[in-house]
């Protein structure tokens, strides 16, 4: 432990701030008068630290201050972050940085600091505007083996060295015995020019953090990613998750370009969540990431994705114009390796290099299971990589996947010979149900399935398949030009018992002709024609599926629910 507690106890008044490093006493008590006669200045009178509402102390830092001050008021602030870094922060303490000012340095908080969820240590701005931490080749704020910390309303900016290898805000724990450190809040921050904007990690077993909230954050211009959580390698026989109860709300992750020299790993994602049990991403946006990721990497970036996690919900979020430097990934949303019991819902994806929604497993361990993709929109995705599609599901033993009430539109790319399908399936799928979706193309395959699946493995029911040009479904080795012919050849597909299901009716989507260019363009994916969609769709509630209560736009679902993510205008 490099931190020291040199505080003392006073009967008549609160103890002064504890510090990590004691200062050598210039004048001894016994020889004080003799030394002072030789020119020693008397010390300033002792001023007790003021308790705040959480029974802690409040410290101030300003470029106009002086490190010889007590730092206990805006009138007597410290000058540097280095001085603040000497304090051993106790539960309830606050560190306030002058708003509108630039503070060069870093803050490091360790195991002897903070630690209380009920009385957290708070790092925030005071005065007008937000304070800026300018990190000189270091992390902006680094927290190791402790929690009970809140970072609010701070701008963090790195330099070239920080961009190469440091994190803007870093929380890491490698404590023994699978301990979860409780309470982390990161709010209203702006983080740029680091390797990662925010990085939260666990170093062993299930050790990590719980009750983590990141909200109203802008994470941009960071090399590898905007926000990352991670833990140790996943063990399918004994899954352990480093973090739990994670909440990300109103995050903006954009223009995180990736590392062109990182050929052995993925870089350039907006939000990456690994090793989490119980996570929520809500009302967040990821765009224009990954443009400089490696051209030779075998794994690439995605806008918002999760891996090695369970009980995740990614909802009401937008991912667009994300790129990849290579021939893989570059999509909007993803449920990747070892994800279980998770949901993608009420999201919008458009104009990504790769898939709008990628469900993928490289591992045959059975850990990718029990996931749902519902009430999402995808428009004009897989622009660079047509071997993906609007929605893509493939990999080793992807099991118990439900895809329902999504709307997917893909369009021809005149610069590509191969065109992206609305839905692509590859081998390895088990017990996948694809129901009540709208698939629209302008001549590309509506479905491109590597394998002619039996309905016991993959089942289609109640979907709308519409093409503004040539109608086409690729099903294993066969290509079928009509719904009727595909239904006849793919035994059991688009049937409920002996009755045919599904339709090839025009849903009357404006987006079929005009690509979405902004979030407001989602309105063009509302069907203008509804009767055929209502007649074709199954009542999934009767089949035991909980649809929720609203569609993509928050409109309450009617007793008869039409296919697609949005209920038709004609049904209103």
UniProtKB/TrEMBL annotation:
This is Right handed beta helix domain-containing protein. InterPro entries: PbH1, Pectin_lyas_fold, Pectin_lyase_fold/virulence. Residues 1-22 are annotated as: Disordered. It comes from Streptomyces purpureus.
